[in-house]
Hints:
Blueprint: H1 4-7, H2 18-32, H3 44-51, H4 55-68, E1 71-74, E2 78-81, H5 95-99, E3 129-131, H6 143-155, H7 172-186, E4 195-198, H8 201-212, E5 218-222, H9 227-235, E6 239-243, E7 245-246, E8 249-250, H10 252-261, E9 266-269, H11 283-296, E10 299-303, E11 328-333, E12 345-348, H12 351-364, H13 370-381, H14 384-411, E13 415-417, E14 425-430, H15 436-445, E15 448-450, H16 453-456, E16 466-470, H17 476-496
Helix pairs in contact: 2-4, 3-4, 6-13, 7-13, 8-9, 10-11, 14-17
Amino acid sequence: xxxxxxxxxxxxxxxxxxxxxxxxxxxxxxxxxxxxxxxxxxxxxxxxxxxxxxxxxxxxxxxxxxxxxxxxxxxxxxxxxxxxxxxxxxxxxxxxxxxxxxxxxxxxxxxxxxxxxxxxxxxxxxxxxxxxxxxxxxxxxxxxxxxxxxxxxxxxxxxxxxxxxxxxxxxxxxxxxxxxxxxxxxxxxxxxxxxxxxxxxxxxxxxxxxxxxxxxxxxxxxxxxxxxxxxxxxxxxxxxxxxxxxxxxxxxxxxxxxxxxxxxxxxxxxxxxxxxxxxxxxxxxxxxxxxxxxxxxxxxxxxxxxxxxxxxxxxxxxxxxxxxxxxxxxxxxxxxxxxxxxxxxxxxxxxxxxxxxxxxxxxxxxxxxxxxxxxxxxxxxxxxxxxxxxxxxxxxxxxxxxxxxxxxxxxxxxxxxxxxxxxxxxxxxxxxxxxxxxxxxxxxxxxxxxxxxxxxxxxxxxxxxxxxxxxxxxxxxxxxxxxxxxxxxxxxxxxxx
Length: 497
């Protein structure tokens, strides 16, 4: 006889009612094989007495199990585990494992993608100051404006249609707003048929790579490149070819020589501020790249992730603004402008490609957040987005200037860097004989946590010793704090060397 009294544990202070706790545990024992099919269960009075609960609680639990098909009542005989259930060989009884979920290892096979693994800092702590690699300051997000517009939209009866299924291309009003916004701010000449709304720029990169790179097609990237994009291309089945990056961006002369000997299907560029080095693709190379795309019939995936943040002069218009042959797939979003949680982006390209991307998007994420998309559309129309962008542009420029000045004055003996013309990070190279592994280890002693992107961005194993240090996410006090901690780190190293 199964020892119900010793193995049923009921907690009166739990949020789940007693009868459901009882039925849950009986189901667990039936599924584990400890209560095989046709096993007779104690009568309601006996079980209630053993468990010191009211008989009605047991009756309610039995009724629940009967309704689910786990047990059955046979007149004049009693209550039994349903006889038609499959027989399961029970494991050795272990009171601890019977209660705790132990499903840490799957019992089936699946594809493993080692290229998607990312080394995480195991020493992460809320007390640590963390150096990011170039993200916006979410504290500056226009949360009041977002909340106001969102609230007004949800109050209007005709907007309830936004709660049902919408177009896989994205919210109509947002797409229309983007036609005007992008044509005016980026010199594009697009129509609504060329826009697909995505969940941030990463979805755009994923969709484009899935359509362009299957069956081991080739894509060219910079010898240092945005690692998540590289992982996405590899996952799509593409072959990555690298070309050098210098102060003028990717080297299109080397690209041309590569095109002569190999079939190239796509080129990925972050033309405005190359990721990770922040350099801008020169006008001459932009023209050359478009000429090569036309001549060799490859697609250009232009990831314009931080177009709006250019400090020294007006932003350089994207490649897409000069694309007259339908070679450029232009990708952008609002996570950098507003906040990382604002997962709204866009993919722009020839209509036939956008249609195909929409069909693919349908099976991975039927549609985006229509209420949020409608909110953003309204904020674009009223100028809220542009006003916010102008505001944070001034703030980030001040932070860039302070950060670079302090780096030069206090840490110039340890780093080489150029003041970036835009973006949210500085590409710094650690001078020899120092190394980032030692720096990051000692930095933790100063409660300073450095993102290990010196490993991620050394795509060609050149040992460039470079790292992106983001300044946008830190206010002036935090910037000074980080610099002082880095000074202490190098002082400690020099003292002990």
